[in-house]
Specification:
Helices cover 52% and strands 7% of the residues. With 682 residues, the protein is of the alpha+beta class. It has a domain of 199 residues: Orthogonal Bundle (Neutral endopeptidase, domain 2).
Length: 682
């Protein structure tokens, strides 16, 4: 699936981090080397590892690394992202020079970046590049024409009403079908509209003010902008009320409703799917996966009850919101003031070069990624990483074969599924061709819209075609990784396969605790509460005996209850069910990597390095990669909406469940990291 599909169908992919951020760096010589083993300066030796391992592993680092003013968080992942951004900038600065020696790919990425960096040119044009689309919205005088307008806005990247794309058929993963999902909100999640606590109420008030100011910038008179903003809030609240909650969306069974097109039409009698599909030039299709039928029923009723002025205001707002980053500075600043400062607690806007690097990576990622791979990862990196993946897979196989709670029938199926996992390492074997995307070095917004339309149409063209098993969701510079149950594959971009997570010359124990546990994390996603519902061939089918399913649920509930007791963002509780899949993967991934460590050390002396045994260095590898500070606002945002637990609990929650950790650091029974009761699935 593509990045949009991950957002639309949250149960289908599991990533390591809350969000995939494009990254890149400068030429290797310009990159400051990071420690290739335990970073002693990261430690806080005033704290016992048995009392708070996260603070022990990260206290020194946290004290020395405050959050930069242009970030909502700062951690080891962010450090690597920053280095990668420097690499990408060096590539793009070079390719932005208008030289006849540039290859077509170099010209595309260079001109895309140059146009984005041309702030003076963007200011001079004002809202003129957006005016044709604003005029098209203003011309909506009949709801019967709404499907055509929605189709156009979807094609250029505006999040109106719902999302539409292609996806593998959950019950036949060899087939690609069309799919529609709930969407259309300007706030991060449905609960932001529905929760009645004072903080949520205040954020809704500030959101309405933000919408008002954005509509005014787009040309609406003051009184109309205020009325339209209130109407937008009312309309989006109506959409939120019929949206499925995040925890329910973790169950793929809740997101699979493959309907004939005529049955889809019956859900929304007031919205013509024939006109919509024709307007987006969709391939002929007899079926659509409607992820949340109740949402579309509710959407249709809401459209029927909403007047045209409100609909036009809503569409204008979503268009301006989607394009704000490539509009004049007033739009950029206002958008950042709400989404950056208010929701994420970021004091300062990122420098323009960083935003333009990330925008180029988002629009032309595999074109830009080619040079990134050459400068950082190299072709030999695939072979090195595959060897470690194979070691982790062998450890997981041994774990499955020795689990005391799993019966032979399910065990055999689990081993088959593991054997079927495909490993995508570093970068695609075949690069995506962006040749049809017209890039003009004097048209930043046009480039953005055309790149978005290219991706939208690329996804649509997959409907009815064979599945491309070589396709990647993340771009090569991304500091993240993911597992896709429909593909049954793990994906590790070159961006993350660098220090401090992995270095060929680094300490083996540390490497296994860092990137080894991350590999184990992604593999274990195939067997978490969502991934376990997909078979080896990617199909959504039950391959578990009822006894094993019950045993799994009991163990998963233990983890959900454990994490549900943790507090974040001052007064919020971690949602143990929302974060269950990631917590299962963290716990399983570190256990599997530890098993691989023991296999590696078999018959070898346990040499201490820096005063730490191999086992201690292994656990420090895990702890140190999660060193991270977040603004209170971002921690709150992620606690409410994200399936990942806060970093502190990704460390302490896991090691407190592992007896080998307590042995490694000689923790006394009953210590916080050595509780009397523990949770374990894998």
């Amino acid at each position: 699936m593509n990045a949009k599909a991950i957002a639309l169908f949250a149960a289908a992919c599991a990533a390591l981090l809350p969000a995939a951020t494009p990254c890149s760096a400068a030429a290797p010589a310009a990159v400051t080397p990071l420690p290739q083993g335990v970073d002693l300066s990261s430690l806080d030796r005033k704290v016992s590892p048995c009392d708070d391992f996260y603070q022990y592993a990260c206290g020194g680092w946290l004290a020395a690394h405050p959050i930069p003013a242009d970030r909502s968080s700062w951690g080891r992942f962010d450090e690597l992202q920053e280095r990668n951004l420097a690499v990408l900038r060096s590539i793009l600065d070079q390719r932005a020079a208008d030289s006849p020696q540039r290859t077509p790919v170099q010209r595309q990425i260079g001109d895309f970046y140059a146009a984005c960096m041309d702030e003076a040119g963007i200011e001079a044009k004002g809202t003129a590049p957006l005016q044709p689309d604003l005029d098209r919205i203003a011309a909506l005088t009949d709801k019967a024409a709404l499907p055509d307008l929605v189709a156009h806005l979807h094609a250029i990247g505006a999040n109106v009403l719902f999302g539409f794309s292609s996806i593998q058929d959950f019950k036949n993963a060899t087939a690609v079908i069309a799919a529609a999902d709930q969407g259309g909100l300007g706030l991060p999640d449905r609960d932001y509209y529905l929760k009645d606590d004072p903080k949520s109420a205040e954020q809704r008030k500030l959101y309405v003010e933000h919408v008002r100011r954005m509509l005014a910038l787009a040309g609406a008179p003051a009184d109309r902008a205020a009325a339209d903003a209130a109407a937008v809030m009312g309309f989006e609240t109506g959409l939120a009320k019929v949206s499925l909650d995040l925890v329910s969306r973790r169950d793929p069974q809740r997101l699979y409703h493959k309907l004939a097109v005529e049955d889809v039409q019956a859900l929304t009698p007031g919205f013509s799917w024939e006109r919509y599909l024709h307007s987006i030039s969709a391939p002929a299709t007899a079926v659509i996966n409607i992820t949340v039928p109740d949402y579309f029923r509710g959407m249709d009723a809401l459209l029927a009850a909403t007047d045209l002025p409100t609909l036009r205001a809503y569409l204008r707002w979503q268009l301006v919101h989607a394009t704000a980053e490539l509009l004049p500075k007033a739009f950029v600043d206002e958008s950042f003031a709400f989404y950056g400062k208010t929701l994420a607690g970021i004091p300062e806007l990122q420098p323009r070069w960083k935003r333009c690097v990330q925008r180029t990576d988002a629009g032309l990622g595999e074109a830009l990624g080619q040079e990134f791979v050459e400068r950082t990862f190299g072709h030999e990196g695939k072979a090195r990483t595959r060897a470690m993946v194979q070691a982790i897979e062998a450890a997981l196989k041994q774990d499955i074969e020795t689990l005391p709670w799993m019966t032979p029938t399910t065990r055999r199926a689990a081993v088959v599924k593991l054997a079927g996992v495909a490993n995508k390492i570093g970068y695609p074997d075949r690069w995506r061709d962006y040749g049809s995307v017209r890039v003009d070095r004097h048209d930043a917004l046009g480039n953005f819209l055309r790149a978005g339309e290219f991706e939208f149409q690329r996804q649509l063209k997959k409907v009815g075609q064979p599945v491309d098993r070589g396709e990647w969701v993340m771009t090569p510079p991304t500091v993240n990784a993911y597992y896709n149950p429909l593909m049954n594959d793990i994906n590790f971009p070159a961006g993350i396969l660098q220090p401090p997570f992995y270095a060929p010359a680094a300490d083996t124990a540390y490497n296994l605790g860092a990137i080894g546990a991350v590999i184990g994390h992604e593999l274990t996603h195939g067997f978490d509460d969502s991934g376990r519902q997909f078979a080896a061939n990617g199909n959504l089918e039950d391959w578990w005996t009822s006894a094993d399913a019950k045993e799994f649920e009991q163990r998963a509930t233990c983890i959900a209850d454990q994490y549900g007791r943790y507090t974040a963002a001052g007064d919020l509780k971690v949602n143990g069910r929302l974060t269950l899949g990631e917590n299962v993967a963290d716990n399983g991934g570190l256990r599997i990597a530890y098993r691989a460590l023991q296999a590696t050390l078999a018959g070898k002396p346990r040499t201490a390095v820096g005063g730490f045994t191999p086992e201690q260095r292994f656990f420090l590898g895990w702890g140190e990669i999660w060193c991270e500070s977040q603004t209170l606002e971002t921690e709150r945002l992620l606690t409410l909406t994200n399936p990942h637990s806060p970093s502190r609990y990704r460390v302490d929650g896991v090691v407190s469940n592992i007896p080998e950790f307590q042995q490694a650091f000689q923790c006394k029974p009953g210590a916080p990291m050595a509780p009397a009761s523990r949770c374990r699935v894998w």
